[in-house]
Amino acid sequence: MGSLSGKNAVVTGSTSGIGLAYARAFAAAGANVVINGFGSPEDIEKERAKIESDFKVKAIYSPADMTKPAEIAGMIALGEKTFGSVDILVNNAGIQFVSPIEEFPIEKWDQIIAINLSSAFHAIRAAVPGMKKKGWGRIINTASAHSLVASPFKSAYVSAKHGIAGLTKTVALEVATHKITCNCISPGYVWTPLVEKQIPDTMKARGLTREQVINDVLLDAQPTKEFVTSEQVAALALFLCSDDAAQITGTNLSIDGGWTAE
Ligand code: NAD
To answer: Any signal peptide, and if so, which residues (predicted)?
Structure first.
């Protein structure tokens, strides 16, 4: 019996990177999982089936687009219908776009606010009634070091992540007496496709080479000079789901190699 046996988790943006690590960590602890996100159908099916065979739990896929409120509510409903409840919700889907503000495409601003901030509101709104009914719940939002500090050329991302930190505190207070906790995790740089994809634009925006972006921009922010791993972030989420973490709520937990200590 794993520590999460009998629990069911929804992880948004879990076809890749940190989200996939959360889903696999919960499944390893015995939870059934709803995975979500984009990618090729073959790759997604491979990851879904691998979760089931590696951990002997049930894993289903929701194709919900995190820019679409009705699809987000449908994803929570799918989890409740398939498994009987959604006990753990991780709002993790996110995208990045790097540009000076005067050139920042308006549709990119809207898309980042929708995926990185509003989708968490819609998912929490849909999941809280079921958690209240069961008298137990864990809501974890992937924020970022950019929920605490800013970097130039990331206006939408930094705004959305500061918003996630505020949403986390508000929800924590609203559900505090229902044995539901709500926290956010704020990683520094984790080597995932999201980080890799922003390197060309950062090279352009700052006039740097790829190596300079990795060493002088990304790792420069982290005193340890190492990337955080997706598995380390997932291990923290797993702890937040434990009974030992029942009194941790409304917090913003940094896992950033010391970045925000400076
Ligand atoms: P990633 O690109 O590997 O994964 C992002 C996931 O979100 C993918 O599964 C993708 O398909 C999904 N997604 C994107 N748009 C979506 C949409 N409209 N609907 C549904 N799913 C969608 O990135 P990652 O680095 O694993 O990022 C995960 C989260 O961690 C994000 O919220 C990101 O802001 C945050 N984060 C990442 C880092 C880092 O350094 N990688 C640092 C701090 C915070």
So the answer is: none
CATH fit for domain 8-188+229-255, picks 1.20.1260.10, 3.40.1650.10, 3.10.50.40, 3.40.50.720:
3.40.50.720
Tokens of 151: 């970097």
How far does residue 177's CA lie from ligand 1's centre (Å)? 31
Find all residues with CB under 8 Å of 224, minimum gap 6, and list them: 257, 258
**Per residue in 38-51, pLDDT tens?**
999 999 999 999 99
Ligand 1 close to Cβ of residue 79 (< 6 A): no
Say if pTM beats, i.e. exceeds, 0.90.
Answer: yes
Q: Are 117 and 72 in contact (CB under 8 A)?
A: no
Residue 1 has pLDDT above 80, yes or no: no
Helix (H) or strand (E) holding 120: helix 119-134
Q: Whose CA is nearest to atom 31 of ligand 1?
A: 94
The string of pLDDT tens digits covering residues 150-191 is: 999 999 999 999 999 999 999 999 999 999 999 999 999 999
Q: Which DSSP string corresponds to 9-53? A: EEETT-SSHHHHHHHHHHHHTT-EEEEE--S-HHHHHHHHHHHHH
State the closest ligand 1 atom to the C-alpha of 111, by its place in the atom list counted from 1. 18
Q: In the chain, where are the structural domains located?
A: 8-188+229-255
